[in-house]
Design goal:
The chain is α/β, with parallel strands linked by helices. It has 12 helices and 15 strands. The strands form 4 sheets. An 8-stranded parallel barrel has the order 1-2-5-8-9-10-11-14, surrounded by 5 helices. It starts with 9 loop residues before the first helix and ends in a 6-residue tail after the last helix. 47% of the residues are buried.
């Protein structure tokens, strides 16, 4: 099964490569990491290249979709029946791809613009998707909050927002320990619905390869609904005032959103009155992403693209490698270096700057803008000390990446017997992320949030005033605590103030 539904003639294939190489040469000259203050601003004046590398690239000489099997693969389940794993794997290799190579290439171009400050990435969704919570309403509500947040950011920053959902594949979760103990009973840790079940029983915690098929089917259904929402009129900017969730109508953030939505409505009415009709106002581009953790699943959904000859992991548009599996000599990096999707790597304060430079060189050997995003997950108290060293090392190496802030994973704690996160710490890490980039003269490219469209009580604080005593009322997560809709929107309004500040620094308003 090829990643694209149609083939093109060999001449067209060569033309695509030729135009890509020409654009690559131009872009590499003109797109660089932003320089320190006082240096000329560099803008992307050529269309970013569509391909991260050619199929004869040197780094692919010993690569294949299964070459990761020769490396150490961490965070993998120990299935009791290898024959069953092989049967499921063979079946998964025959299913249709979930996404297409052309979509991934379009996303790469947009991420390239985020790397130079001409777009901003909003990535969000559940910590881990669940079979039990799967419903059209759940998908719609998360999609709707992401739309709200993107409108807030677009209106403030005056730039395109790249919308990435942690959806349609975010099932597997890395664990800090292979076993979980409650009282005197010790069982294998819950690793996500794609691997085992959350119930604390011996039977539920046995890894089951058939869950891969269920995860695939749910992902396909989720993507089908998301595509319908994105292109079928639901995401039309003319509906911006109707996106508010019912329980947010009387909240402070809901009122702020509606006030801004009315201003958007007025602008659209003005455009219509002037005879401006733009079909892009009625649809939106929405992409899926997840952590490429469970290697059997990722390999099984990897397909060779008929138009370029490159391999794409068609389980999602964007894939990332987590902090626990980013070893340079490990299986996950080995697999990801050969697929042509845009990629991300999450790093904490523990990474050495030289290690980061080597990792970027491995995953993006041709230094193509948009190919690689570096997602920082350090904790509110560590960003200011450690991020500048990483930015400086990447800049000195001449590497182009999209810097993204994950303010969730470094700020997890336990209160009242619940795993939780403080809203103030989440906001503080985002603030530090923007401050460091402002001081370094580099580009803050996006934020990555664990959030939901539901009215949960999993993170403490924010305008909704959730306290420790509230955690038990609507604590529904299967893994890590998520921002609820009101808290997510509040974060969006804060990020909007930082984007507006950047906009004004680039283009100061005329003096009175």
């Amino acid at each position: 099964m090829r990643a694209d539904a149609t083939r093109v003639a060999g001449g067209n294939r060569r033309a695509l490569r030729g135009s890509t190489l020409a654009a690559h040469r131009t872009t590499r000259r003109q797109v660089r990491e932003a320089k320190p203050k006082g240096a000329p601003k560099i803008r992307c004046v050529a269309e970013p290249p569509a391909l991260p590398f050619e199929e004869n690239s040197k780094h692919l000489e010993s690569w294949s979709p299964n070459s990761w099997r020769n490396k150490t693969a961490l965070q993998q389940p120990e299935y009791p029946d290898e024959a069953a794993v092989r049967r499921v794997f063979d079946q998964m290799c025959k299913v249709p791809p979930l996404v297409f190579a052309g979509e991934a290439r379009t996303l790469q171009r947009q991420l390239a613009k985020a790397a130079v400050g001409e777009a901003f990435v909003l990535q969000g969704g559940d910590c881990a998707e669940s079979f039990d919570d799967f419903s059209a309403n759940h998908i719609r509500d998360t999609f709707r909050v992401l739309l709200q947040m993107s409108v807030v950011l677009t209106f403030a920053g005056g730039m395109p927002i790249v919308k990435l959902g942690r959806m349609a594949g975010q099932f597997a979760k890395p664990r800090s320990a292979p076993m979980e103990k409650i009282g005197d009973v010790e069982l294998p840790s819950y690793r996500g619905d794609i691997i085992n079940r959350p119930e604390f029983t011996a039977e539920a915690r046995v890894p089951n390869p058939n869950l891969l098929i269920q995860a695939y089917n749910q992902s396909a259904a989720t993507l089908n609904l998301l595509r319908g929402f994105a292109s079928g009129g639901y995401a039309s900017m003319e509906r911006v005032s109707f996106w508010n969730l019912d329980f947010m109508g009387k909240s402070q953030q809901g009122e702020r959103y509606l006030e801004m939505a009315h201003r958007v409505d007025e602008a659209i009415q003005f455009m219509h009155a002037c005879g401006v009709e733009d079909s892009t106002m009625s649809t939106t581009e929405f992409y899926t992403s997840h952590e490429a953790l469970l290697m059997e699943y990722e390999e099984a959904l990897t397909r060779q693209d008929s138009t370029t000859g490159l391999w794409y992991d068609c389980s999602a548009h964007f894939l990332w490698c987590g902090e626990r599996t980013r070893q340079l000599d490990g299986a996950h990096i080995e697999f990801l270096k050969g697929v042509a999707n845009p990629l991300g790597v999450k790093v904490s304060h523990k990474i050495d700057p030289s290690e980061l430079v080597s990792m970027i060189a491995t995953l993006n050997p041709h230094n193509v803008p948009g190919r690689l995003s570096i997602t920082i997950r350090m904790g509110a108290d560590k960003v200011r000390d450690h991020l500048p060293k990483l930015i400086d090392a990447v800049r000195q190496a001449g590497q182009v990446v999209t810097w993204i802030c994950d303010p969730m994973h470094g700020n997890t704690e336990t209160q009242g017997g619940y795993k939780t996160r403080l809203y103030d710490n989440i906001k503080e890490e985002i603030e530090a992320f923007f401050d460091v980039h402002e001081e370094m003269g580099s580009i803050p490219g996006g934020v990555h949030l664990e959030m939901t469209g539901e009215h949960v009580t999993e993170c403490i604080g924010g305008g909704s005033g959730i306290e420790v005593s509230d955690l038990s009322s609507r604590y529904h997560t299967h893994c890590d605590p998520r921002l609820n809709a009101a808290q997510s929107l509040e974060i969006a309004f804060y990020v909007a103030t930082r984007l507006r500040r950047i906009k004004h620094q680039k283009n100061p308003p005329p003096s009175a």
